[in-house]
Amino acid sequence: MYSILREMAYGNVNPNEHGRPRSKEFDRAAKAVMETEQKLLSALNENEKKLYEEFSAAQMSLSSMQEVEKFIQGYILGSAMTMEVMAGIEDVTL
Predict the structure, then answer these.
(1) Any idea where the domains of the chain sit in the sequence?
(2) How many angstroms separate the CA atoms of 94 and 64, rounded?
(3) 2 pLDDT higher than 60
(4) Which of 55, 71, 42 is nearest to 79 (CA)?
(5) Contacts within 8 Å (CB) and 24+ apart, 57-65
(6) 24, exposed or middle or buried, with CB in 10 Å at 0-12, 13-18, 19+?
(7) Which helix (H) or strand (E) holds 31?
(8) Cα 26 from Cα 17, distance rounded (Å)
(9) Cα 24 → chain centroid
(10) What's the pLDDT tens digit per position in 81-92?
(11) In whole numbers, what is the pLDDT of the chain averaged over residues?
């Protein structure tokens, strides 16, 4: 029998591997970010570039933590919805 949880435990299912939206809108936004970053970096001196790199790393760390929390909350919400549908529970507390 196929078990999603077992497959996740063995690393065969990774919900994050499809995290990039496939759309022209996303591609345009990503391109704008890269181009703007290159313009910014070319205007900075070495000390400013180092400060920007520190800021960027801190921002990425924060974004990563937020993404994990969103994933967890989405999983909890999906589980609660499933419980409500399967059990006919009307007041599932999250």
Answers:
(1) 22-87
(2) 23
(3) yes
(4) 71
(5) none
(6) exposed
(7) helix 24-43
(8) 16
(9) 19
(10) 888 888 876 666
(11) 87
Residues with Cβ within 8 Å of residue 89, at least 6 apart in sequence: 83
Average pLDDT over residues 3-18: 78
Residue 12 DSSP class? S
Quickly count: other Cβ atoms within 10 Å of residue 83's Cβ. Answer: 12
Q: pLDDT tens digits, residue range 32-77?
A: 999 999 999 999 999 999 999 999 999 999 998 998 899 889 888 9
Count of positions (residues) in the chain: 94
Hunting for tokens 């760390």 — which residue is that?
Answer: 61
Residue 71: which residues within 8 A CB-CB, separation 6 or more?
Answer: 15, 16
pLDDT of amino acid 15:
73
